[in-house]
Specification:
mainly alpha
Length: 117
């Protein structure tokens, strides 16, 4: 595993994570937007996310296991959430959230390093 074949899917999944978090949460900044309009807008944004995630997984499966790809996606989704929460809402994680993120990072370590076999 090396080179662009290993890096490109991670970069695409990172972009996908930010876009998806925007799709999930951006409408909260606009409470006057009707629910159906918010859903339609989120779906439109999510289409871009799918255009990133699907090829990222197709490329990534050549370098990573399915469990590793899912773990990468989940960790990047959480990172994307933190970025979007900060950029759009001015919210940063507190101590309990940081501890929870550390536990998730420990889970990711278990997937990639397979210390239990």
């Amino acid at each position: 595993m090396g080179g662009a074949q290993a890096i490109l899917p991670i970069a695409m999944l990172a972009a996908s994570a930010v876009v998806m978090n925007i799709a999930w949460y951006w409408h909260l900044k606009h409470p006057s937007l009707g629910l159906l309009a918010a859903i339609g807008l989120a779906w439109g944004i999510a289409l871009l996310e799918y255009c990133l995630a699907v090829p990222a997984n197709r490329i990534g499966i050549q370098s990573y296991s399915l469990a590793e790809l899912k773990t990468i996606q989940e960790v990047l989704s959480l990172g994307g959430f933190v970025l979007v929460a900060w950029a759009l809402f001015g919210q940063t994680p507190g101590p309990s959230q940081l501890a929870g993120f550390a536990l998730i990072a420990g889970g990711a370590f278990m997937i990639f390093k397979s210390p239990l076999g």
